[in-house]
Amino acid sequence: MTTTPPTPAATAVPLPAPHDNRCPFSPPPAYTEAARTSSVSRAELPDGSPCWLVTGYPEVRTVLSDRRFSADARHPAFPLFTPERRELFAENPSFIRLDDPEHARLRRMVTGDFLVKRVEAMRPGIQEIVDETLDRMTDGATEADLVGSFALPVPSLVICLLLGVPYEDREMFQSLSRTLLNTFAGVGEISRANDELLDYLGGLAAHKKEHPAEDILSRLAARDDLTLREIAATGILLLVAGHETTANMIGLSTVLLLDRPEQKAKLADPAALPGAVEELLRHTTIVHTGLPRVAVEDVELDGTLIRAGEGVFAMLSTANRDELMFGGEDRLPADDVDLDRDARRHLAFGFGVHQCLGQPLARAELQIALGTLFHRLPGLRLAVPHSELVFRPDSVVYGLKSLPVAW
Q: Which of 12, 26, 270, 340 has the least CB density, counted as fewest CB within 10 Å?
């Protein structure tokens, strides 16, 4: 087995690395530079702890599918950016921060709600939500913040209906969600936000136990093998991931397409929407911080030995721009957007047993939202210079704070 000589700390990639505002849709330059030189690089957490940065497509797939890498955030060596996140995950892990069999037991309880067949049956309802949201945004107006008026309300309404969460509480849970996703939230902020959401969703679950409805929380509350805290933790995961990820994808995709009218024109063909969304998912890959894992056995990756007890970050963003996987003579370079590209093997939703449960729903929402937006507003344009757009580099889920547009 190959051994890796010690690397001077000065060459370690800092995690999380800063973004480059000159190209806000690309991964941070430190990650792309590391990917150019090696598929496995030394990295360093904010507290100085060493870990590994895995950037190549095949190596990222291995980390996410090989059971020698653990997703259990309770492991003492699991790599996290702040002590607050370690404390949070140790006390209230959702199933994406657990290994099987715990992970499988909890995940199976909600898998059926996100099956492709179930989501396909939801499409008319999603279309109605998109149409009504656009109606409100454009009623008597020629300008709006697309994030606040469209990109955020659409997935929020959908996930609220699925979960059984009152949409009128959206300002509360959206604010708390963003605290949970903030990479460097202050001391106690993350715990307070998590506790508030646990109390809120636990209270809803307790109510639905006595007054059930046709929603996920009601169904989970009716089970005898789940505690209210487990239900609430699952609810937090579905609520936060269910609106933040898709909302940011809608916003980023809109800017990308407005910048590239020749690509946007391809959406005029409804049959092109599914493939276009896969390419947008590949190119933007909004989880810029990567997916953390810890090795529980020695593993060799591309000639580098990762020892048991060492932390790893699987960088979806660089893997999705791997030229050997997504480039080629008949395609634009992997760093470019090409809506004709076959991007179906991208890793934007992760890979392996922990890959995103809600990906069928996210795909449907993106296809309907983007297709309808550009069909109904063919003259859509930015209302401010591109340089004035404000992004959210401090969030686990990358996106825009606002998106002023006109039509």
A: 270
Give the C-alpha separation, 315 to 28, whole Å.
11
Please give the CATH number for the structural domain made up of 9-406.
1.10.630.10
Q: Which secondary-structure segment (H or E) carries 333? A: none
Looking up tokens 């890793």 gives 347
Peptide bond into 378 cis (omega under 30): no
Q: Phi first, then psi: give them for residue 167, nearest 5 degrees.
A: -65, -25
**Inter-residue contact 194 to 170 (CB < 8 Å):** no
134 backbone dihedrals φ, ψ, rounded to 5°: -65, -35
pLDDT single digits (tens) 144-172: 999 999 999 999 999 999 999 999 999 99
Strands 404-406, 143-145: pairing kind: antiparallel
Q: Can you tell me the distance from the alpha carbon of 183 to that of 179, in angstroms, rounded to the nearest whole number?
A: 9
Q: Measured between alpha carbons, how far is residue 229 from residues 48, 330, 377 in Å?
A: 34, 52, 44
Tell me the pLDDT tens digit for each residue of 76-125.
999 998 877 777 777 777 899 999 999 999 999 999 999 999 999 999 99
